[in-house]
Amino acid sequence: MTRVLAIDTSTSRANVALLEGDGNTVDTVVETTASMAGSHATHLFDLIDRVLATAGWPKRGLDAFAVVRGPGSFTGVRIALGTAQGLALASGRPCAGVNTLEAMAEASGACPGERTPVLGAGRGEFYVACYDAESSPPREVAPPRLQTVESFWNALPGYALWDIGVAPPRKLPVAAGRQAGLQTAAAAGRIVILRGLPATLDTPVSPLYIRPPDARLKQRGS
């Protein structure tokens, strides 16, 4: 059985989970979530220690690490990647990344139509992607991208799965979508186990920002 520690700090929530599986079935052993906007770095290791203590697993007993690599909070994504890859390097174990929208689709389970996760991106835009209705792991139909809020709700492709920070229109039909599942760390860990661990230990996980960080935008405009 493969034991995985999964981390997601791509939004205002810090989500950490421990999973165990064999490639066919995966169980979430323990998971914890904390609302910690702006303080992921301070508390993330506390959350990791907490789930390990609850499960009774030593760090050396982990087989791999899963991390949500964005899009989302630039700071949160960097913290999660740095933490997961640092732990992987120190333990000599592989680390694999899953994008935020794919994790949202997996966490939401099967839906009536193609799953379309929606994450707030600021500046009147959403991060969106599209996945098939029920596969686990999700099968990508359209890759992650930016889309204006207005054009998204007007077109509404597929079955919308919005993050807790997204406010859907009041007149949106009930059958058009629902809030996405919040257990995104567990979803990422499940995807990594089901797809199989990375073949090598020296392949870094790259962040998926879609939009350049604000610092780069300011430099270009200066």
CATH topology of the largest domain: Nucleotidyltransferase, domain 5
Question: Percent of residues in helical segments?
Answer: 25-40%
CA-based shape = globular
> Number of helical segments?
6
Unreliable runs: none
Mean pLDDT: 91
Q: Name the beta content range.
A: 25-35%
Distance between the termini: 53 Å
Biggest beta sheet attributes = 5 strands, mixed
- What is the ordering of alpha helices and beta strands? EEEHEHEHEEEHEEHH
Classification by helices and strands = alpha/beta
Spatial sequence of strands, sheet with the most strands: 3-2-1-4-5
Q: Under the CATH scheme, which architecture of the largest domain would be assigned?
A: 2-Layer Sandwich
As a whole number of angstroms, the C-alpha radius of gyration is 17 Å
- CATH domain class of the largest domain: Alpha Beta
Give the domain tally.
Answer: 2
Could you tell me the number of beta strands? 10
Oligomer status: single chain
> Can you tell me the CATH superfamily of the largest domain?
ATPase, nucleotide binding domain
Explain what the structure shows.
- The chain is α/β, with parallel strands linked by helices and 222 residues long.
- The chain contains six helices and ten strands.
- The longest helix is centred in the middle third of the chain and has 18 residues, at 74-91.
- The termini are far apart.
